[in-house]
Amino acid sequence: MTELDFASNVQEVHFGSWVLTPRRQTICDGEVEKELEPLLYKILSFLILHRDRIVPRDELVQEVWQQNYVDDNAINRAVSELRKTLKSEKQTGIVVKTHYRKGYSFILDVEIKLYNQATDEYVKAKEGAKDPKQQGLDVDELEVTADYEKPTVKTNYRKFSIAALCLITIFMAFSFYTREANNITPGDLQSVKLTLSEEPYSLEEGYFIRLVGNINRTYVAYGFQSARNSKEETHITDPDTNESIRLAEEGFYIVPITWSLDGSTLYYHRYSDDNDCEVWNVKLDSIKQVNQHAKIFSCKDKYWLSGAEVGDGQFVYTKSGFRGNEQVRSLYSIDLKTLEEYRITTPPILEKSFGDFFVTSINYKNEVKLVYSRYDGSQSTIYIANSNGERSESIATINGLVSHISTNSQLSELTWVRNKLLYSYSLITKNLKIKDLVISKDIESLININEHEYLAISKNIGYATGIFDLKTAEKIENKNSLLNEAISTEQLEVRLLATESKKSKVWFIADDSPYLLNSYAKGSVKDLYLEHENKNALVIHEKGFQVIEIESKKIISEYHDQELNVSSGARLSATKIALFLINGSLLIIDTQTNSTEYQVLDTEYKFIPFDESKLFVKSKHNHFQLFDYEAKKYKSLFQWQNNSAITDWYISGDNIWFITLQGLYKVNYKNQVVEEVESFGFAADINRINYVSENILGVTQIVANKNQLIRLY
Fold first, then answer.
1. Residues 558, 564, 565, 570: is their CA dihedral positive or negative?
2. Which of 136, 417, 470, 499 has its CA 20 to 30 A from that of 332?
3. pLDDT digits (tens, 9 = 90+) for 604-651
């Protein structure tokens, strides 16, 4: 059995007190369930598959990290973290053994339950078995073809503006993807409705960001950019009286970071359009005295910095440039007296990973705890750790970037909001509760003023679909509040659109006349396709798909499974539709027999069909491949050698179109020639490519809207 077959064929793996569920990437001992980080899951599954021998460290580097070199300390930390994860009150013994100067081995007996076996049948691993065939497992090898020519790049030299770079960086930090679904661990959770009244807290017009309150909530600071000022400033307000103090400086952005542990001092981020980037602080009672503002240390992240005091003169903050990759962040602890600093977290190196973001800190049992979010490009795993980054424990995994969490030290509680759902995690009971907020506005962040009252910032990021002429780079049209779009290959005026308000609504439009086909849960529509000469609509949603006859609105076929968490999907043939799940599995559904088949797909969130048995995918390290899911073989097409992450892609004919933070590119995968189509013109705010045909490009764009600071009670 190969690693690729593991999740598709294996239902459960029993070892010691644990039960591993590969498709969910969780372990459970009957009382405690833990979701494994992707790297830890890969190490564990690889060691289980090769448990009959010692696995050398070099083999782990090549097969798990899939790199030529990984620092020994990183391997040690990963294995150490895996050992910590595999320990519980029931499982106290060693699971993974270190063999000095040799490698690692999995030492427990294993029982593997396959999907195609009866529920009470197991394949028992024999001690010392050297051939997986002895265990009745499929040992077909996956062939990977990795030959490709070194690409040549043809560049369209268009300068991109600093403003565009700021815009895309901020958008990346707040809401990088529209594919949002609440994939919560641990456990299945029930939500209750919470109806709140709302009123404007500030009547200022502009953009509100970064809401931080001191420990007893006597003061709250927030960033604000008015319509007449191009740079953010910090406002400090008393929630009881609404009285505010404005902190601004000509030529500089002033954004709040955090309060001191005692709540008397504000830390803020001061940076300019040049190379200035500094962290300052000031005591609240001296804020109007310029000479009382003090520079604490210089920084490098101009557009997004978060951190907090953790005691003993240490300040923990987010810093980019992990292992030379400016896209990936990790947490650093800096001594505020000596300015010596060291890294305290080690995020896994994944192609679209953005690493670790410091979110907040909380005083629990007279000890400062860090709360940080590990963002892999689609999901955030929220961790609680000691002030030095040790004893890290995951509490939830949620799609999208979680960058704002409010704390209540008296209740030992963490609170955050996502898609009008209010999450509360108790450090005492380790329970996560959800409340369904009944309010009119989408909320970006909030903090609790007291037990029943919040200050909140509404979302200022929206989405719109646009159509561009690739010859002139001019926009043909733009539609606001749209998530995605399917354009007819025959007529541009015929299309499907998904709009977003209280629900996701799918519309059929011909000659600018909208026709509502169906409504779905908010944020659940993932992909749209026009089919059968524009007579049918294929809607891929979070829990399955529907094929709708447009004229009658009749549902011709559908598949729905409440347990699914679909990222994308497409039709493979007249009778087969494939859904790509967030856990990395490809679910293929036969619409005639309603039978299903699982495959493990080496791609990120998306695939594009080539024919009935082959798919275009983009796997790790920006590697585009053609996958034959019947033969289980990959063929290399093109690998983007640049360090920058590819945020979305599309294939039309022999061309691969893709977006990075630098612009829009296309490559002919047959001759390997790369062309820079647009360098931060209209490409700066593209979030998703919906359609490419000849000289027409259909996209979903990020748009900025004014937002509000509101009181919820």
1. negative
2. 417
3. 668 888 988 899 988 867 889 999 988 888 899 999 887 667 888 889
